[in-house]
Write a structure and sequence with these properties.
The protein is α+β, with helices and mostly antiparallel strands and 164 residues long. 27% of the residues lie in helices and 37% in strands. The structure holds coenzyme A.
Length: 164
């Protein structure tokens, strides 16, 4: 996508973030963590459209449960009409740059290798390697239409050496 701009999310993005995912409390928590500097919360913008968002934990969060690993990519979403155009890749590359510039050597990501097999293949092509021999089951919170539900998902953790 030619006119894609990736920048920090701001409070004024909240209505358009909620249009992408109806989870205002989650977006507000991510804006707060970004303000205190434990994470970065990015949006992808094309023209007047907010087409995606993604965050990265640089240090352990202050307002949420500790992460299994930091720094860690988190929660990347591209609007359904804009998928498979390279926006997800651009959001990953932008967050890798942020973590590299912060002086970190490694970067982690945790994903669902069953529901999102091609997203796993994308990270493997980029040089990430899996931390476990096989996927494992994990309970986590999911924001669905303004509600928070506990779901059991498949997970696999991956890591990349940013200095390699
Ligand atoms: C996962 C998601 C963020 C990817 O964003 P995207 O903009 O659609 O992805 P991109 O177009 O940047 O493609 C990324 C890579 O996947 C490949 N890809 C894209 N769509 C694909 C598809 N439908 N099937 C297989 N591979 C695909 C691309 O070729 C690219 O790989 P490459 O860089 O090696 O060529 C997006 O699909 C999404 O929001 N899905 C729903 C939410 C989700 O599952 N998020 C991930 C978990 S947090």
């Amino acid at each position: 996508m030619q006119d894609l701009n990736i920048r920090n999310a701001t409070d004024s993005d909240l209505p358009r973030l909620c249009a992408l995912r109806d989870a205002r409390a989650q977006h507000e928590a991510k804006l707060l963590e970004a303000t205190v500097g434990t994470s970065r919360f990015l949006v992808a913008v094309s023209g007047l459209e907010l087409v995606g968002f993604a965050s990265v934990h640089i240090r352990q969060p202050l307002t949420a449960a500790p992460k299994s690993h930091v720094p860690k990519l988190s929660d990347c979403l591209v609007g359904p009409a804009y998928r498979s155009l390279g926006i997800g890749r651009a959001l990953v590359a932008a967050r890798e740059c942020i973590v590299r510039d912060a002086g970190c050597e490694q970067l982690y990501v945790s994903l669902d290798p069953v529901e999102n097999a091609w997203w796993l293949q994308f990270f493997l092509r980029r040089g990430y390697r899996t931390l476990q021999d096989a996927p494992f089951r994990k309970k986590e919170f999911r924001h669905l239409s303004g509600r928070i539900e506990t779901v059991e998902v498949w997970r696999q953790d991956l890591v990349i050496n940013l200095r390699a």
